[in-house]
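Task card 7
Instruction: Convert sequence to structure tokens.
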Amino acid sequence: MNDLNYRVVKESLELFGDMGNLSDRVRESLHERRVLKLVCGNTYFWIFNSKERDYLIIPKIYCGCMDFELNVIVRGSKKYCYHLITQRIAELRGMFKELQVTGELLEGILAEVLYVGRSNTLRRLLMR
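Output:
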């Protein structure tokens, strides 16, 4: 097993240590490429594109979902939400969609994600 594969397996096990049966959800999200990397020049943002909502992700630090806010920040009952886990595995395995966007488009997408919870602009881009 090469070093990268070892790190992916090791980190995945650490993330899933107390997460029960999230592996099916994570596997499905990875397969559907729900993790998005929006790139504008040297700047990029990670978005988790769920079926109903979109979440801004700051890897290993923050997710805009309610589970993160409630169970990670407020209750402290988890270290990560499933979106953060999925993003990390997707990044390590290269299982994400990368979209090149303009600054104006990126600004609009982020505003929709942060203020509406869902970006129709992003979804239109993904349909192309």
